Amino acid sequence: MRCVVVGGSGFLGGYVIDLLIQEGFEVFNLDIAPPKANSQAKFFPIDLTQDFDFALTPKDIIIHLAARQYHQKPPRYKRKEYFDTLNVTGTERLLQVMARHGCYQMVYVSTDMVYGKPMYLPIDLMHPKNPFGFYGKSKLESERISQSYREKGFQISIFRPRMIVGRGRFGILSKLFALMDKNLPVPLIGKGENCYQMVSVLDCAQAILLSIQKGLPNSEFNLGSACPPPIKTLLAELIKDINSRSILIPTHAYTLKKTLGFLGKLGLELMYAEQYQIADREYILDISHTQAMLGWNPVYADKDMLIEAYREYKAQKSGR
């Protein structure tokens, strides 16, 4: 069976490709850039922002991972167009190509940011969709396009992961690790008594495999860790385990958010609004539907993910 991973050169893509090849699939990687590491997948350069016509077959399974995200530093004055060009238009272009080739099976990795600020907990699939940032809005629009193709007979599983953590990408964690590495104080947004769920990149890849094995159910699936601890507990344990002398500093959340927003307007963004606006909020996805339908259970705890990420951060800093 062939799997075509669109955006396979990215962070999650490498893990998904490795797992699929391990399971015996023939894998193609369609991306604008070749993979950074050695990969057994066959690579074909394509750009979803342009017209393309890769020769798909009706039995192909498409895994759509291509997306523009904040860490790629979009210009503030063009953020809507920046995200929509690939996340919305690119998704629609991909589905059009699939339809031309009679290929109707897809996994789409969206984001939990389609929900916006939590109105109740845990956040289940019935939670209102009120994204407040351009990234979340573009992903929600992509989901709506995917739903319109479901109505045409497509089988599309949509995943909404929390912040994905693992080897290969640090994102905002690099700032956190840098402070701990230098034994400097680590400011919290608020008191740190809230839970801020994450999910391992390995658990995400496993969920995609299970979806394929289950015949790509036409459903949405939340992905997150089980029983995430309060942030201050999580970070305190991390500081202890890596032998850092950093201390956690609670802050006045409202004031700090205003400061982060002001710095962002000056082009000095330490965090993006879709990150800091919910950083002091209890934010937990309900993963029971994913567990019931796919038989998926997260293996990695939040602390395990952070320690693994920190070890790679240190290895890269030392040139290993």
Order of helices and strands: EHEEEHEHEEHEEHEHEHHHH
Task: Note poorly predicted spans.
Answer: none
Share of residues in helices? 25-40%
Content of β-strand = 5-15%
Large-scale geometry: globular
How far from one another are the termini?
37 Å
Describe the structure.
- With 320 residues, the protein is α/β, with parallel strands linked by helices.
- It is 39% helix and 14% strand.
- The chain has ten helices and eleven strands.
- The strands form three sheets. It has a seven-stranded parallel beta sheet, with helices on both faces. A two-stranded parallel sheet has the order 7-9.
- The longest helix is centred in the first third of the chain and has 22 residues, at 79-100.
- The protein is globular.
Give the tags.
14% strand, 11 strands, globular, 320 residues, 10 helices
List the helices and strands and how they pair.
Layout: E1 2-6, H1 11-22, E2 26-31, E3 42-45, E4 61-64, H2 79-100, E5 105-109, H3 134-150, E6 155-161, E7 163-165, H4 173-181, E8 186-187, E9 198-200, H5 201-213, E10 220-223, H6 231-241, E11 248-249, H7 253-265, H8 273-276, H9 288-294, H10 302-317
Parallel strand pairs: 1-2, 1-4, 2-3, 4-5, 5-6, 6-10, 7-9, 8-11
